[in-house]
Amino acid sequence: MKDHLDKSDHIGRRMFMKILLGTGAAIAASLVAGPSAVIYLEKRSYKENIKYRLHTLANFDTSNILVVYFSRSGSTEIMAENMADNLKANLVRLNAPSYKLGYLGWLNSMRDAYFKIPSNIDPEKLDLSKYKLILLGSPIWLYRPAPPIKTFIKKNKFTENKVILFNTYNSKFTDEAIQEMQDLIEKVGGKFADHIHINRNRMLNQISVEELISKTKELVNKRKEFWL
Ligand SMILES: Cc1cc2nc3c(=O)[nH]c(=O)nc-3n(C[C@H](O)[C@H](O)[C@H](O)COP(=O)(O)O)c2cc1C
Asked: 170 versus 21: which is more confidently predicted?
């Protein structure tokens, strides 16, 4: 009788271990597979965006309009370049190496967006005093503009410049997050004037780069008069 109980106990323990290991393996696989798919699609998107970069963008150093942007996989960059081209604006890219494409960069992006951790950006400060109009661009991370653009705003002195916020995203941002950006811009001396955004749609159904460019042109042409 005791032998029988020991045996069934042993089988029970083995079953439990198998279930535990199986569940652990399934969780580990989903933790790797989900982000891996996202990273693969981001890299594909980056490669596609590169083909549409405006390498011939003129130098508008003397302009009183400035476009400052951060971009990880190149979509906000396409939007920023086309806006700068259309508005004959000076263009500055914020580099943030800890968010570069790949698994580690993605983890850092998620962590800093979630915990609202300021970013290491380059350049950190710019002389904004000569600009009448400043356009600040960023992707949306966890429903709000990504940390680098927020860090840039906090680190700089705005001098009553008119400020436009622009974003690219895949599905959703919150109005509270945009209100928070408006409050922040006004706190550092800027005059928040507008928010424009382009929804690229969910990862497997995203708009083409040509569509992104034509939507950008449409938005700028519609609002240019109001901005200037
Ligand atoms: C860490 C991370 C979080 C994101 N969170 C959101 C989100 O909350 N809502 C959304 O619509 N898109 C989200 N996205 C998608 C990006 O906003 C979208 O792909 C954007 O166009 C990328 O711009 P970029 O190519 O300039 O980096 C997220 C992307 C990353 C990397």
From this structure: 170
Q: How far apart are CA 221 and CA 200, in angstroms?
A: 20
The whole-number average pLDDT for the span 187-212 is 95
Q: Distance, CA 129 to ligand 1 centroid (Å)?
A: 31
Q: Which atom of ligand 1 is nearest the CA belonging to 168?
A: 21
Supply the Cα-derived Rg of the chain in whole angstroms.
23
Average the pLDDT over 30-49 and give the result: 86
pLDDT at 160 over 80: yes
Cα-to-centroid distance, 73 and ligand 1 (Å): 9
180 CA to centre of ligand 1 in angstroms:
18
> E strands along 9-70, which residues?
65-69
Q: Where are the domains of the chain?
A: 49-227
* Ligand 1 closest atom vs CA 172: 11
Which residues line ligand 1 at a C-beta cut-off of 6 Å? 71-77, 106, 109-110, 113, 139-143, 168-173, 200
Class of domain 49-227: alpha beta
What is the DSSP secondary-structure string of 152-215?
A: HHHHS---S-EEEEEEEESS---HHHHHHHHHHHHHTT-EEEEEEEEE--SGGGPPPHHHHHHH
Using an 8 Å Cβ cutoff, are 89 and 65 in contact?
yes
- DSSP at 55: T
Quote the pLDDT of residue 22.
Answer: 81
- pTM of the prediction? 0.88
d(CA 98, CA 100): 6
Burial class of residue 19 in the structure, from the number of CB atoms within 10 Å of its CB (0-12 exposed, 13-18 middle, 19+ buried): exposed
